[in-house]
Amino acid sequence: MPPPGDLLSDPEIAKAYEDVRSDKSPLTWMILKYASATSDSLALAKTGEGEISEVCEELADDEAAYAYVRMKLGNDEYSERTKFVFVVWAGPQTKIMRKAKMSFQSGQVKQVIRTYAVEIQTSDKKELDADAVTMKLRKAMGANYDRQGSNY
Asked: Could you name the CATH architecture of 4-140?
């Protein structure tokens, strides 16, 4: 396996990560994809200024990718918080060898994408629905005053 410097050698990756993290930047998400079907190198595939639904549109059923998304949570403008989500995507038709390598490579990606509230490993876009992700973020934050009843 190549060292993380090789896997993530694209300088645009670190810049996009910082932009997504920055409140001064309009970017709210980035997606890393493999350079080719046989390559282990990742490249910045796309960035955007919208919601997590835009990220889903960019993820194909036959590919592996990593996404980093900034989301705002809160009941009103005064309680709004910014949280980050790290997505490890392996589409339902992703090749077995790629999926096997991803478990190791996702650790290397985390050396660049270091700060996030939740990590979602999935092959199902329903798990990346804005409401589903918001619920995961709220659980990670602790108290959740939106739910009726309790599961604890």
From this structure: 3-Layer(aba) Sandwich (3.40)
